[in-house]
Amino acid sequence: MAELPPGRRPRELAVLTLLADEGPQSQARLASRVEVNRTVMISLIDGLEGADLVRRERDPADRRRYALRLTDAGAAELGRMDEATDRAERALHAPLSTPAARRRLGDLLRSLVPDLAAALPARVTARTGFLLARVAWRLGGRREAGLRAHGIEPRCVAMLVALDTAQPCTQERLAAALGVAGPSIVAAVDDLHTSDLIRRDRNPADRREHILCLTPTGADHLTRALDAEGAVQREIAADLGEREASELNGLLLALLSPPGGHPGGGLTEERPADAR
Hints:
Blueprint: H1 10-22, H2 27-34, H3 38-50, E1 54-59, E2 62-70, H4 72-93, H5 99-112, H6 114-119, H7 122-125, H8 128-148, H9 154-166, E3 169-170, H10 171-178, H11 186-194, E4 198-203, E5 206-214, H12 216-240, H13 242-255
Antiparallel strand pairs: 1-2, 3-5, 4-5
């Protein structure tokens, strides 16, 4: 959502849309509907109030409470945010070559968060960017819970997977495989080494560098982590359906490809209705 007006955030777009479409609401109700905790919501509303985009007034249904109302300035800002979001959506959808593929992606994502789709205005849940963020947050939580149930810290898994593929390798090469800067993984490498999950030896070709590889304990840890992740994936596939899960994976991969660069982007208009 880098194309939103300066200083604006996607959660603010959801809040302003709710107020525009459904009228004044309490802060607590808004927090529940956009799935943010009380502390985050207080900060979000303070920012919107400070910009005169929303106003806090007595709730006509309960004078003991306050409700938030969209101001004229808020309505104008929402219009600008909608335009920016529409541009971002078009860019996001570009790799999907047909309208049918775009609609299908939205349908599949909404099926993973049916309660959210029912609780929010259609113009919010019609946006792929919003759906991707919420689905990723929920499924990420399920993945982390599944790993921790087996005593596995989620943040270690990606590093162990990358090292398993690249080993033996330098710390710099491991960072490159993860797509991050070398210094950013120093603490994590230290933790993995302390936990006897990786071995760290001096590079005989350059004593300033270390060579990393998995220990037997690390290899076993990775196997258990992948088994735990596989169990979560099977649960999700069971919730969605095997065929639908495969289709969703294809569409998500297509989003990461240049337009026309992945077969998942070529979903045709003739997809049978019963595939939905």
